[in-house]
Amino acid sequence: MTLDTAMEVVDGVDLNGKTCVITGASSGLGRESARALAAAGAHVVLAARDAGALVATQEWIGTEVPGARITTVALDLTSLASVRRAAATIGDITPRIHVLMNNAGVMFTPFSKTADGFEIQVGTNHLGHFELTRLLIPQLAAGARIVILSSDGHYISDVDLGDINWHEREYDKFLAYGAAKTANILHMVELDRRLRDRGVRAYAVHPGMVATSLARHMTAEDVTTLREYLPRRAKRTAPQTDTRPKTTGPKIAMPDQGAATQVWAAVSPELADVGSVYLANCRIRDDAAPYALDEARAAALWELSEKLCGAEG
Ligand SMILES: NC(=O)c1ccc[n+]([C@@H]2O[C@H](COP(=O)([O-])OP(=O)(O)OC[C@H]3O[C@@H](n4cnc5c(N)ncnc54)[C@H](OP(=O)(O)O)[C@@H]3O)[C@@H](O)[C@H]2O)c1
User: Fold this and answer.
1) Is 99 helix (H, G, I), strand (E, B) or coil?
2) pLDDT per residue over 285-294, tens digit each?
3) CATH number for position 193
4) Which residues have CB under 8 Å from 212's CB, separation 6+?
5) Selected catalytic residue, list 177, 203, 229, 278
6) pTM score > 0.70 for this model?
7) What values do phi and psi take at 108, rounded to 5?
8) Residue 215 Cβ contacting ligand 1 at under 6 Å
9) Longest dimension (CA), the chain
């Protein structure tokens, strides 16, 4: 059966008694994932930075899924103080988390820094999520799943562990997004290694090209530049046996379709004994860039992230 939308993925799935935390749930893929998981009966915790958008999302899900159990939490991933407050609030809301979906993200932003001095793309997409996840680990239930939104954009670039925050190189917003999305996969690899003995598994997801607000920082010129970047980089970094389906042009999905794979990662029985994998089109894909799945680099990124976030223990 082909699973085209997130709502189709949860058809027949019962998540009553389960709690799912979704970052960036106020828009795009996070919002659609929240609706689908709520429709399956989960208590869904929506975490995002825009209070108005959170309320609007909560109301929209309430209309779409009568009786949905939704809670909202303020979370700004560009501030570790906000991340820590959000983790504490989530701790007050629920003793157990069954799905943690690290979905929030920014793409191709001009150079800027987070409150803690991190480059904004790696700071938002990886380091903020690293700290949030680290703080929530004690609450993850046996059998919990961590779903991390990455992207085929990871083919654009590996992450430079010697200069993760672009202090020593001229900033390139395309390379910075690629590096942040590579960091997402490496984070997933190390999470799965550390937590699988507890029955907690981790997955990285490419949702496809989806019509959301993510491209808000892109100019018309960027679209042309990106066309040059991606095939060139993908050719250089993708394995020789690239089995990805060849298409004549980019196929743009709607958010309810784009959210299918991350919701599948969260609920599919097919993934019960599997983790540390890259997913797209509701399937495991074996062609993530080798540098993104490198276990030694995943461990090194974990150590660096702990140091940068000032994590204890
Ligand atoms: N759309 C695609 O084609 C595509 C392709 C590959 C991967 N992805 C990945 O999919 C994920 C979801 O993106 P989307 O397409 O749904 O984009 P989106 O509609 O722009 O949603 C992104 C969400 O992240 C939130 N966010 C951004 N910065 C944040 C911060 N500092 N703190 C807390 N929340 C923050 C946004 O909140 P605000 O509205 O307040 O900014 C929004 O709720 C991203 O990780 C993206 O990299 C998307």
Assistant:
1) strand
2) 999 999 999 9
3) 3.40.50.720
4) 27, 28, 29, 255, 258
5) 177
6) yes
7) 55, 40
8) no
9) 52
